[in-house]
Structures
1.
Amino acid sequence: MRVKKRPRPGPKADPALAERRREEILDAAARLFAERGYSETDTQVLIDKLGVGKGTLYRYFPSKRELFLATADRVMRRLRAYVDEALTKVTDPFERVGAAVRAFLRYCSDHPEFVELLVQERAQFKDRKKPTYFIHREAHVQRWHDFYRTLIGEGRIRDISAEQITDVVGMLLYGCLFTNYFHAIERRPEDQADAILDILFHGILSRRERRQRKID
């Protein structure tokens, strides 16, 4: 009686190698989408640039849509990591707000091609209930709510809704992101951040006007 030989197991998948390959694909795809636009990007061009087989690309990203949305998701993950890194050694709460604003504007200024991907997403994927930007914002906004509630409890900022503060600051930054991109504003991110923070922390009314309006 002949005993059937068991097939030898294939080589084990290397998670680190797979992650590197995925990042290589996303790097090349982000550049191509930013340069040509979603509609005009042919995945075959990407395959040729990478020097891989079509099956390799589709093993990681089954469709062009999924590939594009993955590049937009990575933009937001990197933006968040960049801002978090800027906060690591900042302990004063108001300096933390300033560091976060400056890091956000600096990242967007240094990477206009990433902003381009967020712009394309809003234009091309109107069927999505929420763009990637807001998906990430909602996933990580609670820490800022808690941050402002702490300052309210300490009497360091006005007793208003922490959600309202977070929303206003978020809208300011989101507006800057698109305004700077579409109008090619060349103002230094640090200068723009200083202007935002000055209005945010001090308002626009003089002390006399505040007293007359009984705001203080």
2.
Amino acid sequence: MRARLAIFKSQQAVELRDVKLTNKPSAMLAASPKGTVPILVVSTSHIIEESLDVMLWSLGQSDPDNLLLRSVVELSDQLAFIDIYDREFKPCIERYKCAKRYHETNLEDCRNDCEVYIQDLERRLSEHAFVMGAEESLADIAILPFIRQFAKVERQWYVKSSYHNVKRWLNNYLQSALFNKVMAPHPIWEDGNEPVIFSGKSGSN
């Protein structure tokens, strides 16, 4: 999701290939033998295999909304914030999801572990509209998929929770035309299919 958001925001045009990870195409494995998504093939000698790296590449090409917050916030500060969510919060969410799925007895403990990060986000969003300040940034769209996952684990609990600013922030994304465009489903790619061009430029498919 976050790789697509950054590509869309940067108005780069790429050929989009939705795949089933249970039936990985040979072309995908040839480009990236580790077989995970996303994969961005810039050229035969330049393959990007991590979502955050795809985001940075995209916005490095074009950043019309100034998501990198040049001259406002150091990029290193954004990357340090994102790293906490990638390295610490994501494993907490995985444990929380597993506890819910398998009806484990430690569900509340797993939720509490996640809430440490949600509480920090709530505090930030009580001070300004976005994660790093008054303007949307790379950090917002980088952590968006994780917060969306958290909200879905115990939906009724989340709706009733006191995280009003987090809910406002998340709903602004989930109810936006941008989100619907970025997350629109596409047919599973097969060799020989007509290319699906994905871009934030007006008039692109």
